[in-house]
Amino acid sequence: MSFFAILIALLLEQARPLARSNLVQAGYRAWTVTVRSNFDAGKPHHGWLAWAMAVLLPCLIVLGIFWALMELIGWPLAMLWNVAVLYVTLGFRQFSHHFTHIRDALDTGDEFAARQSLADWQQVDASEVPRSEVVRHVIEYSVLAAHRHVFGVLFWFSVLSALGLGPLGAVLYRMAEYLSRAWSRKGVDGMRAPTSERLQRAAGKAWYVIDWLPARLTALSFAMVGSFEEAIDNWRVYAQRFPNDNDGVILAATAGAINVRLGGESLRRRDAAYGEEGDDAQWEPGSDVTPGRGPEMAHLRSVVGLVWRSVVVWLLLLALLTFARLLG
Fold first, then answer.
1. pLDDT (tens digit per residue) in 271-295
2. Three-state secondary structure of the chain
């Protein structure tokens, strides 16, 4: 059931991508604002209580619907529920339009449009970024987005679905990732009051733990479909030099897999709600520079190939596991 649900959801998302402003995301954003305003009292247990309320309650609702469909109607409707949840949580088209706009602008020599698209995508100041640095940032943001929107969701959905928990893993992963950003410093949830340090710490620690294994599997898959030895060597030497350890593993492996120099100065983040400039958030992958060729347009095509080959590897592995289970 898991393999076919993933395949159908990916095909659906390619044919008809989810609108950027949709009721599901708007509803969850409103829910997290409500939880934060009612439970963020600044004490350690309040941070974890708020995180659990924001993440686990929606997860339990999704799981309850899955179990009810399985028990009362049967697996066909339960699989359709899996497809519906994956359609919301999984997919390239949730971020690939940013990549496409920037690549097309650079192809036509319109560097101003490319910088503007990068700034709009990441809410950063990109007005004075050189062309090569635009390419570098696009590579970094794109591989991290591919991991968070595709590979991480695939991992947790597959693992928990195999345990009979349906689409719980996909929802858990995407919600944890969103809260790590929304509750980081000022956040993006539309509240002017700063998030308490306890709440920031709880959301950050939970996200680190949940993303630890998927990040390393994504890096391994990039190494397998790219230049394996260079990717593993970069992973071993340079991953710890990035501010976020999980992101560093992915970026270091990517740099080695396609022989591109990644890392360096981060872009300054703008506050999405108030147009202010602020400190770099965890989403910013600045670091020491990895070895490799300077970022070029050819590397953007290499990134696309790297990601799609990795998707094929993951799907083939899931297909083999599915057929082995059916035959067994």
1. 443 333 333 333 455 556 888 899 9
2. CHHHHHHHHHHHHHHCCCCCCCHHHHHHHHHHHHHHHHHCCCCHHHHHHHHHHHHHHHHHHHHHHHHHHHHHCCHHHHHHHHHHHHHHHCCHHHCHHHHHHHHHHHHCCCHHHHHHHHHHHHCEECCCCCHHHHHHHHHHHHHHHHHHHHHHHHHHHHHHHHCCCCCHHHHHHHHHHHHHHHCCCCCCCCCCCCCCHHHHHHHHHHHHHHHHHHHHHHHHHHHHHCCHHHHHHHHHHHHHHCCCHHHHHHHHHHHHHHCECCCECCCEEECCCCCCEECCCCCCCCECCCCCECCCHHHHHHHHHHHHHHHHHHHHHHHHHHHHHHHC
- pTM score of the predicted model: 0.89
Sequence-distant (6+) residues with CB within 8 A of 204 are 180, 184, 282
Phi/psi region, residue 275 (left: phi>0; alpha: psi -120 to 50; beta: rest), is: left
Token reading at 98: 């940013």
